[in-house]
Amino acid sequence: VGFGWKTVAEWPNGLFTNFKFDPPRDKNIREDYLYLVQMSFGDESPYHMSDLVLKITDEEQKVLSSLLAKPHHVLVSPGAAWPNKQLSYENLVSQLEKQSASFFFAWGTEKERALSQKLCNHFGERGELLDRLSLPLLQNLMRGMDLVVAMDSLPLHLAGTTPTPTLSFFGPSSAKKYAPIGDHHHFTQGECPYNIQFEKRCPKLRTCKTGKCLKN
């Protein structure tokens, strides 16, 4: 089961699906995937997303309890798979300084770890660098936060499975398409200085040399 020829992101994908459906335009990506499943089963009944809690081990529960006992109430994930999806360091610091809370900084790669450490150093006692957490443990920690701040990245979409509000930043991808659904999720959409228009992702996402939609 997959997207039809009108909506598939990369055409070779269509060669490996037996049943293809084209979701209605202007829907969130989560609604697109739900549409695929519903159409494949012939089920068009309304769907309301229920609360999702990923299972963690007893040892991870101890770690979670220890983290939630700390005074940090905002979790920040500053990285993204593509550099053009990240705010500049200066812009991110400016955004975080608007918050009065203290921060946990999460990371997944060594480059993200270095960035998170730099942010920790900037905020001093208001910041703490997390160890590299499993996705279930990270999701459970997000559930206990007042806010999750992230780019268009895996951690943002993980936070979208929790009741916790998010603040996210989009540039070469569409917030309308990819931001978590709900009034408690807030986002900023960067503007392309080259006037490139797109519905889902900028065609220059991987090749733009300036990334000015998020760097300015």
3D structure, described in words:
The chain has 216 residues and is α/β, with parallel strands linked by helices. The chain has helices at 29-41, 58-68, 89-96, 110-123, 135-143, 154-159, 175-178, 212-215, and strands spanning 2-3, 20-21, 74-77, 103-105, 127-129, 147-151, 166-170, 185-189. It has 2 domains: 2-41, no CATH class; 58-215, Rossmann fold. The model has no long low-confidence stretch (mean pLDDT 94).
Per-chain topology:
Blueprint: E1 2-3, E2 20-21, H1 29-41, H2 58-68, E3 74-77, H3 89-96, E4 103-105, H4 110-123, E5 127-129, H5 135-143, E6 147-151, H6 154-159, E7 166-170, H7 175-178, E8 185-189, H8 212-215
Parallel strand pairs: 1-2, 3-4, 3-6, 4-5, 6-7, 7-8
Characteristic key phrases:
216 residues; alpha/beta; Rossmann fold; six-stranded parallel sheet; two-stranded parallel sheet; 8 strands
> Which blocks of ≥5 consecutive residues have pLDDT under 50?
none
Report the top-level CATH class of the largest domain.
Alpha Beta
- Going by helix content, strand content and strand pairing, the class is alpha/beta
The tally of helices reads 8
Measured distance between first and last alpha carbons? 40 Å
What summary fits the major beta sheet? 6 strands, parallel
Mean pLDDT: 94
Spatially, the strands of the biggest sheet line up as: 5-4-3-6-7-8
- Count of the separate structural domains: 2
Compressed to H and E, one letter per element, the order equals EEHHEHEHEHEHEHEH
Q: Rg from C-alpha positions? A: 19 Å
CATH homologous superfamily grouping of the largest domain:
Glycogen Phosphorylase B
Strand content: 5-15%
* CATH topology term of the largest domain: Rossmann fold
Total beta-strand segments = 8
Helix content: 25-40%
